[in-house]
Amino acid sequence: MKILISGATGFVGTNMINALSNKFEFVRLTRPNCHTTDPNTICLEDLAKHDPHGFDAIIHLAGKAHDLSGDADIEAYKLANTKFTTDLFDEFLTSPIRDFFYFSSVKAVADSVEGVLTEQVVPNPATAYGQSKQLAESYILSRSVPDGKRVFILRPCMIHGPGNKGNLNLLYKIVAKGIPYPLAAFENRRSFLSIDNLCYIIERLITDPNISGGIYNLSDDHPLSTNELIRILSKTAGFKARLWKVNAKLIKGLAKVGDKLKFPLNSERLKKLTESYVVSNGKIKGALKINNLPVSCEEGISRTIQSFHTH
Question: Tell me, what CATH number does 20's domain have?
């Protein structure tokens, strides 16, 4: 099967191609006016010239990631996350390609979660990133999809794996340097998504034409607290877990100072590290007719940490 993939050089795209290249043939898709001469890369405006009958699916990963600095520009997000998506989706609708996979985000629904996030929650994104993703979702849902085509809007939570450079990598560096984790006083539960589970889901969806398109949240089977995460991380890397329960009010005060002075610890990053954000994966497991994803949350985290430790 032949797959057209945007965002192929990013963290998710690189891992997905590495994991599934023995099953699918991938061709990279880039933004308009890329002027590429690479035979394995197609600019968006040239898609119609490349015999789209040869492709079975489009996986749309490209976009502007969530900016934790607080300096986000909504128009930049709309250009990267909304317009590119709507233009590509229009091309898909008029092509013979069967499947369209749009990688949205749980942040397209809610920046904070009370209880468990399901697909039934009415979207109310609070950030420029989430709003741009939700605008793209709304456009996709507003269009009439021809018979025989499937459209998947996938909302992953925090994805991790080899090459990940997010908060998990930051936590690893703290532990590896022997620096105590000072946020142990915060009690939380967070969902994560192993890149291995993500690739498993994508492979199943592409190869099983009986699975219906729709909106699906993506997460591992069980959430973890940040303290549990630190313990798994430390055990995997061979370091001693050092958890300090510094007064939570003091930490929040320091984060507010960081907002003004541009310190690494600011209110947005503190929220990402300490808030609860539990995501249900019941719908996608029901569609796949499985009780559990192949990789447990603990095993997936360990694999990611091993990749950090190796490099």
Answer: 3.40.50.720
